[in-house]
Amino acid sequence: MKAIMYTRYGGPEVLHIGQVPDPQPRADEILVDIKAAAANSADVRLRSLDAPGLLKPIIRLMNGWNKPRNPILGNVYAGVVDSVGPSVSEFKPGDRVYGSTGMKIGAYAEKIAVKASGSVALMPENAGFEEAAALPFGGQTALYFLRKAGIQAGDPVMVYGASGAVGTMATQLLKMHGAVVIGVSSAANHELLRSLGADHVLDYTSEAFEWDATRYALVFDCVGVLPAKKAKARLRPGGKVLTVGGLDVAAETKSDLQDLSKWFDAGQITAVVDRVYPMDEVVEAHRYLDTKRKRGSVILTID
Ligand SMILES: NC(=O)c1ccc[n+]([C@@H]2O[C@H](COP(=O)([O-])OP(=O)(O)OC[C@H]3O[C@@H](n4cnc5c(N)ncnc54)[C@H](OP(=O)(O)O)[C@@H]3O)[C@@H](O)[C@H]2O)c1
Asked: Which class would CATH give 2-134+272-301?
């Protein structure tokens, strides 16, 4: 099969198309014919080793010290079940599924074999493959962190970096739960934030952001750059700060995917797809990711 490979860490140019044998599913696995994969900030980290503090040696330990252990990048896919192992009853050939691989990666490829009991579920019925691939990374991360916050209807929440993959999903999930969302991004993305339901918007380069006097039940830093002291100063008594920038890594679960499918089909959340690139243009796609300006998700079509 065709796959996007990397055999050393570095810039976008380390990515190239290669040929590898098709994966063979084990008894408890399904083989998925991938149609779309997300190209996201985790892929950039695993490609470039550009990560702060302790995270860099941790990535090296998990992914290979001198070079990547798995030469096929990619942690989110959407596609069609090709075949199932003999002990799998949950899926059948032809099912449209989506999933996330965590550090196992391997989603930038025509096929992937994954455990049926893992982080894989039926795609939303109303979604195309590109939309489906845009949901898990931000959706599962936002759900993982927001579960820790115990937000009630009416609570004021700051979503810092609300225009990225995690931020766009956090904004929508918080609105679903009745929170009052103050979305923070550059001014260019304010219309997007409003379209996702943000009640108020702030530009992080503006005085209005510096002087914002709202006292929040939660400040959710979806970029990982807001100094803790600055974030804490904005809290009301009992309020919480959560950040994607620490060593806490979001768990990826099947039930989260099932919830995302349900909410998408009910029209409660939408997929924010910024750009779509054919897999042959993966270097261009990663150059765009490296600008750190993407809105929602960037998708690779796999064929
Ligand atoms: N801990 C975990 O389990 C976990 C899981 C997933 C992701 N992460 C981390 O979470 C971070 C975000 O991931 P992502 O995929 O959502 O990122 P992303 O989609 O690449 O984020 C891009 C967005 O970030 C915004 N941005 C860039 N610099 C900013 C700044 N200084 N202040 C505010 N906004 C800024 C940009 O908005 P503007 O153009 O409007 O500035 C852009 O829309 C990454 O560092 C990733 O590694 C952690």
From this structure: alpha beta
The predicted pLDDT at position 165 comes to 98
Please say whether the structural domain 138-243 has been given the CATH code 3.40.50.720: yes
**Rounded Cα–Cα distance for residues 281 and 293 (Å):** 18
The CA 125 to ligand 1 mean position distance, Å, reads 28
Contact between 73 and 39 (Cβ < 8 Å)? no
Report which protein residue has its CA nearest ligand 1's atom 19. Answer: 164
Q: Is the entire prediction scored with pTM above 0.90? A: yes
Q: What is the pLDDT of residues 258-278, one digit of tens each?
A: 999 999 999 999 999 999 999
The closest residue, in CA terms, to atom 22 on ligand 1 is 164
Task: Give the atom of ligand 1 at the shortest distance from the alpha carbon of 160.
Answer: 33
Point out the ligand 1 atom lying closest to the alpha carbon of residue 289.
Answer: 20
Nearest partner of 200 among 164, 231, 156, 146, judged by Cα: 156
226, 244, 290: residue to mutate for ligand 1 pocket, most atoms within 8 A of CB: 244
Closest CA to 201 of 138, 153, 159: 159
